[in-house]
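Record copied across here:
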Amino acid sequence: MVVSKFRKKPVVIEAVQVRAADFNGETFDRSPFSDDPEWLIDALKKQMITIHHSDRDYALWRINTLEDGPNGEAKHIAEPGDWIIKGVHGELYPCKPDIFEKTYDPMPDESSQSARGDMLQRYKDAVKAINRSTDADIERALRNNTALKGGA
């Protein structure tokens, strides 16, 4: 049996969005990226991402990818609105915003995941308390606006 359709495996990637930052050939008026994670700084230092000079007022970014081959000739340019993705093997590549939106969902940051975990635990504790409580306990807690103690 030959398979011709595939579903993308759920992997977590890191990405930053390129912003339109005025570039005068030497400096920017603001950060040209939506964030500055360590991998991006490292890629800039190693010149895996470099400025692609053009006649525009903002910077375009040349991204060296796995496809560039031994001569290192970059084939990928990211412009404002595009995303620069760090893949599962640390490879970098640009992605147009419409494709990025169709392909990726934002991951909640760790602090919101922790808050959700705390809220879930409080919910589980409340359900356990309700399950151990009598109808009278629940009515008394509602009337007095107090927490359930797990029956009594």
Residues 14-103 form one domain.
